[in-house]
Each structure stands twice: as structure tokens, then as C-alpha cells.
Amino acid sequence: MRLLTLLFLLLSFSAFGQQENSQLDTALVRQTGADQYGMRQYVMAFLKAGPNRDLSKEEAAKLQMAHLENIGRMADAGKLVLAGPFMDDGELRGIYIFNVPTIEEARALTESDPAIQAGSLVMELKPWYGSAALVLVNDLHKKLQATGF
User: What's the structural domain count of the chain?
Assistant: First the structure.
């Protein structure tokens, strides 16, 4: 009897863990590249303070504007799904999440950043697994942004 009860419980848990999602949108799955869990691979970049940070106020403002314009270009190209600064003044300055399959491709995009080229920032790149919905963030953000950079 115990064996029969155990078998019933195992089958019940197995069936419970494989319930189908009644809200599944297969077109959205294809559009976002989602796997069966609604996830996908990205490359995350940790932006850290670089060795060349002793710029004048004017030089720093010009470099920051070029950095932001580069972020916009990468986002418009669909290569950057998320970017933003940390709100303190620590060594870790911000993050990028790249919509690319390899560290090498993310590194090439990273090297296009004027702040990286100037040595004001350095980046550490890591493969990352997250929600496939992130690829939709930039289009949604455009509907929320009252002014650009």
C-alpha cells in the first residue's frame, strides 16, 4: 500500500509541475526568442569606474553625452535591452544587458562606448539568463520617455 501511495504522489507532483500555461502567446515566444521557461540568454556588463576619471566638468559632460548617445544607438539597433546607472557614487557605476549570444559580441559593442575608449569606465562581462520579456523594454520605454538625452 505504501508503494502505491508513493507512486500516486510522484505522479501527482509530476503532473502538477508540467501544467500548461493558458496565457502562452506563441507569437510572442517567437518574437522574444523565449525558451520553454520564458527566458533567454543575454550578456550583462558591469560598468566600473575606470582609471581616467580626472576630467574637467566640461569634458566629463561631453563624454557623458557621447556615452548616452552610444547607449541610444545600441538600443535602437536591438543590441542593448537595458542600461542604467547605480544611484550611489561607488566603484560599480552601472549595468548594460546586451541582447547578443556571445561575450565577444558584447565586448565589441562595449568597445564602441566613448567612456570605455576614454578609460573613464571599464566593463566586466558575464553571460546571464533572464526573462525574454526584456527585449520588449526599449519599445515600452519610448512610450514613457517624455524627453530624450
Answer: 1
CB atoms within 10 A of CB 33: 13
Does some domain include residue 6?
no
Name the pTM for this structure: 0.80
Nearest to 96 by CA among 73, 119, 118: 73
Residue 65 lies in a domain: yes
In a domain, 106, yes or no: yes
Q: Where are the beta strands (DSSP E) in 7-145?
A: 39-49, 80-85, 92-98, 121-131
C-alpha cell at 7: 507512486
Is residue 104 one of the residues assigned to a domain? Answer: yes
Q: Is 113 helix (H, G, I), strand (E, B) or coil?
A: coil
* Per-residue model confidence as pLDDT tens digits over 114-146: 999 999 999 999 999 999 999 998 888 888 888
Domain containing residue 52: 41-138
Determine contact, residues 91/48, Cβ cutoff 8 Å. Answer: yes
